[in-house]
Structure prediction request, 1216 residues.
Amino acid sequence: MKPAPFKYHAPGTIAEVVGLLDGLEDARVLAGGQSLMPMMNMRIVQPAHVVDINRVQGLSYIRREGDMLEIGAMTRQRDIEFSDVVKDTFPLMHEAVRHVGHRQTRNRGTLGGSLCQLDPSAELVAVAAAVDATVVVASKSGTRQIAFADFPLGLMSPAIEANELVTAVRFPLWKRGHGFAFEEFARRHGDFAVASAAVLLEMAQGRIVRASMTVGGLEARPQHLDVLLDGKPLSAAMFEEVAQACDRLEAMKDANVDAAYKKRVARAVLLRALEKAHGRVAKD
Amino acid sequence: MSLIGNSVPRLEDEPLLRGKARFIDDLHMPGLLEAAFVRSPHAHALVRGIGKDAALALKGVHAVLVREDLMPHLRNEFMVVGLPSRDYKQDLNRPALAGDEAVYVGQPVAMVIADNRYIAEDAAALVEVDWEPLPAAADCKAALAAGAPTAHRRSPHNLLAEFPMGYGDVEAAFKSAAHSFKETFWQHRGGSHSIECRGTIAARDPHDERLTVWTSTQMPHAALRVLCDMLGRDEDSIRVVTPDVGGGFGPKLVFYPEDICVALAAIILERPVKWIEDRLEHFVATTQERDQYWDVEVAVNGEGRLLAIRGTLIHDHGAYTARGVNLPYNSAEQIAIGYELPAYRMNVQVALTNKVPVTPVRGAGHPQGVFVMERLLDRVARELRLDRAEVRRRNLVPASKMPYQTGVKNRGGMPVVLDTGDYLHCQEDALQRAGWSGFAQRQEAARKEGRYIGIGVANFVKGTGRGPFETVTVRIGPSGRIMVYTGAAAMGQSTKTMLAQIVADQLGGDMANVTVVAGDTGTVPTGMGGSNSRQAVLAGTSAHSAAVKVRAKLIRVASHLLEAGEGDLEIEGRSVHVKGVREMAVDLGKVASAVAGTAGYSLPGGVSPGLEAMESVVIDPMTYANGTAVAEVEVDIDTGGVRILKMVFVHDCGRILHPMVVDGQLIGGVAHGIGNALYEWMRYDEHGQPLVGTLGDYLLVTATEMPPVELAHHQSPTPLNPLGIKGVGECGVIPIAPAVLSAVEDALTPFNARITRTPMMPADIVGLVRKSA
Amino acid sequence: MEESRRISVEVNGVAHQRDVSVRTTLVDFLRHELMLTGTHVGCEHGVCGACTVLVDGRSARSCLMLAVQADGASVTTIEGIAPSPSELHPLQQALREHHGLQCGFCTPGMVTTLVEFLRDCPNPTEHDVRVAISGNLCRCTGYQGIVDAVLKVAGNPAK
Prediction:
C-alpha cells in the first residue's frame, strides 16, 4: 500500500500556502497525516499535489484572550492534551482529547486536521460544536470566520474552498466553575465513538443558568439538543426530557449498526454526561 | 538440574528486542525486484482479456505476467490440496493465476514486477482487465439452495463435500429420551491477522539453476513439495528457507498462488523477486475461517445425562480446495470429545462460496464444536433447572475411564482415544477460583445497583500433537557447538527455545551452546511444520530422542578418550568430565573431532562416524489436552458493551516444558477467543464483496479489552511420548466464546436472553434486551 | 517522474543525507534506504503500531509520515534503544524476563511507544500501561507479559 506519485510542496508561511492552494489543481493539505496518509497509502485519494503545512510558522499555539481560547490549526492534539491553559479554562476539551485515537496519533494529529476531516464521530468536532466555536480561514483574499454551526456542509465536507486554509479555531470559554463532561461509547479504547455527548452547565443558586448539550456520531454533523434547561434545578423529570429530546434527534444508519441502536447509545452517554457535568459544577 | 520444566530465557529474544531479527521483508539482496498483484475486484467474473501495454510502458517495470506467461514453466498449473479427501465431490485446486474466471475478490490475475513496490503498484493500477461480472455465491447456506449461482461456472452445484459423522443408534436414543431440545447456531471466526503479513522471495542461482525460496511459512517442506510438483523439479533443485516469522496462526501453513508466482518470476526474469503482502491484501487473499450454520438437537435423560446429539452443519469452504475438509471435520468431531455421548450423528455439508478459501485459524474448527456442545449443555441446564456446572459434572468423561475411547475416528481413520486428563478436577478448580458458588449473591447485589453481571463456564478437550512425525537432527561438530536442525517451524511460539531446552538437558545444560535452525529444507530432508499444536509433542520428542542418542555416543567416545567407565562420566556445559574429577575432561568439540575421521586411523570405540542423530519419531495417536474457562462479565444494557471482569483458565497440557511459554500461549489464545466472542467479524455483502477491509473495521483485541486472567495448571502426563507432553498452542482460544457468551446470557437473565451466535456485537446484545421489552 | 528531495535526518544519533522520492514513507526510508529493518510494517494505515518510532522524542506512526517530513528531525528507532551491543535497555530486559514478546514483530513498536510513555509517566498504574499500549496490536501475547514488564521497570510489579 504505497501512495501514488504526487508533487510535494513544503511552504513556510501562510501566504505561501494560500498562494499554492490558489494556483494548484487537485491539491491536498497535509497536516498531521493521521487521516490523509492512510487514504493515500490505500490509494483512496491520489492528489496531484501535496501541500505539507508542517513547516508553516505561526500555526501552532494556544492563546487565551479574555473569554476566548484561540488554538492554532496546526496545534498537535498532544499539546492540547498537556496544556495547563486548556485544562484550566476548557476542561471539556481536556477530557475529550484523551479519547482521540492514541498517543502516537495525537503526537502528530492536529486540531485543524481533525476539524477539516469532519468525521461524524470525531471528538474534537463535537467539542467545537458544543461551544459554538469559530473557524478562522485564510485565503489569498484575506481571512474570514465561519461559525462552527455552518462549518459542516455535508458528510465529511467542510465549508471551505479548495484555495482556503484553516488557520485557527476560536473557542468561547464558559464561566469558571462550570460543569462539563464528555462521554462516548467506542468499541475499543481510542476507536471512533459510536456516539458521544458533550455537556456544559453553568449554575447559580442550584439552578441552571446556561446549558449546552451536543450529541456526536449520529449524523454528518454534531447535533445540539433543543431542550431548555435554563432557570431550573436539575431534576429527574429533566433527565427524562433530555432523553426524549435525544430520541428525537436524526441518526443515519452506517455499515455496522442501525440508527435506532446509535440513538440508544447516544441517549445513554448523554444522560451520563449530564449527570457527570452536574456533579462537577463548582459549589458556590 | 533439569532444564525441563523451567522458564529458561528464550533464545529468540535478544535479536527481536534489538530489532536485529530477519523477517521476510528484512532480507535484501543485489538485484532484488518487487512484485505487486492485480487482483479481482469481483467475487465472480469472467476475464475476457488483460491489457499489459500501459503497465509495461511505465519506467521501472520489468514484466507483467499473466497465466499464459507462466504455463510454459509449469508442469502442473494447480496447487494440489494439502489434505486430499474422498469426500470431495469436485476437484477445485487453485491455479497460480486465474485464467478466464476469477472466483473471489482478491484472487490474483496478473503479476507486475518492478524496481520497487511503489512502481509495481503504479503499474498494477494500469493493467487493464476486461471483466464480465457473474452472479456470486456469497453465503454458504444460500449457496446450497436449489438454483443458487455456482461459485465456479463449470461446477454443477456448490456442494463441495458432504459426509456424515457419528456412531450409535441416535434414533432410538431420541425416541426414549426424557427430554430433547433443538438449537440453531451461527458461528463465524475470522482471519489470522498475524501482525506480519505474508511474503516470499525467490532467487535462482544462475550457475546451477537451483532455486531458493524464502517464505514466511509454517510448513516449508510442504511448500517444497508443491514447488517441485508445480515446477517439475526434483527436491534437490529447490530449497525453502523460513526466516523469522511474525506470527502464523494457521493461514501461513498454506501454499499460495503468490508463492508460486514469485518463484516463476524469478525463473522467468532471472532476477531475485520479492512479494510482501500488505494488510489490505491479507483481508482478501489470505485464507481465513468464516461461517458455520448448525442445526442440532440434544437428547437427555431426566438427570440431564446426554443420550444423543444429532444435526446438520453447513460450512463455508470458500472458492477452492486449499487445505482439505479438516475444518468442518474437526468441528463435527469435537462434539463427541470430552463428554460422554452415547450416540451421535452430524451431517456435514461443505459449501463453495465466492470468497477466499477457508483453512484453519488457531483452533481449527474445534472452537465451533465446543461452542455448540457448551451451549447445548447450558440449554439442558436451563430447561431442567440444573446448575450449569452440575450438568457438566454429570457428563464429563471421568478420569477413572482414561484412556477413553470415544465413538469418533480422526481424519486418518484412527479411533479418538482420550489418553489422560482429569476434566472434572480442572472444572472444579476453575469454578472454585472464579467463586462460582457465591456468584448468585453477587449477581443479585449488582442488580440492585442496576448493574448486570453474569458468569459462564466452558470445558474443552483438544487433540494436540497431530502426527505422524517431525524431523530433528542433533549434531555436535568439532567446534563443540550443538546444532539442532528441524523441519519444525517457528512463528513466535518459542520453538527454538523449546528444542534447545530439550537437547541441552541431555547435552550439558548450556543453552547458549545450542543453535537451532528451523524450517530450512536444505538442512533436513523431511519435516511437517507447525499446526495442530504439534511441535512440542512431535519435534520435542524427536529432539529428545536424537539428543539421547547423541548423548550415548558422546559418553561412549569420551570414555575412550578419557579412559574412564561410561558410568563415571557426566556432561556439563561444553565438556564431558569424570564425576568428581573436573580436570579429567574433554571438550565436546574434541569428542566430535575424534569421530570426524583421520585418514588411516580407526574410530575410537568402534563407533560410527560423526556425532549426530536424526530422528523422526512416529506418534500417530493424538494426545488430548483439556481445560476449563470461567468468565465473569458485566453488560451495559444501554450500549450493549461487554466488559470481561475476570477470566479463570485452568489447563492441563501434560508435563509443562516451559511455564512462561505455556502461560504466554494460553493468554494469547484467550485474547483471540475474546476477539471471536465479541469483536472479530469478516463481513461480506450479498455479492461476496468484503465489507471489512482495514484494521479500523476488523477489531483485534488490544490491551485495554483484556481482562485479568487467572491461570492454573494441572499436569496429566501422556504415555504417548517420553516427555509426557501435550500441545498448548491453540488451547487458549477454544473455550472462550462459549464461556463469555454464556456469561453474557447469564447477565441478561432478566431479559430472557438467548445467545446462539458468535460473535455478538453490542448492537446484537442490545437487540436481546429490546426483544424482551 | 518521481520527484525527489535531499533530506538530512539524524537516526539513532547518526546523521544521514539522502535523496528520497517524496512519496517514500518514513518507515520505508528507514527500512530500505538506511537498512534499519527493526521497525516493521504491519498495516500502513496507522492502526497496528508496529511502525512506531520516536521523532524528536515523540512516538509517531512512521507509516503515516513521509521521509521528507523527517528532514531536520532526530529519529530514534528500536536499534537505538539498547545502550550498547552488550546491554539491553531496562525495558527490553524486563520484556525478556516477563515473556513480553513471542514472535517479536510488534515488539519494536511497543518498545519505542513505552520508552516515551515511561519517560512521561514514570509511575503508571496497570490501567495507565494498558491505555499506553492500546494503540499497539499484538496477536501473540495477549499483552499480559508486556504489562508485567512495564510495571516491573516502573518499580511497581504486578505480582
Remarks:
- Chain C has a mean pLDDT of 96.
- Chain C touches chain B through 58 residues (CB under 8 Å).
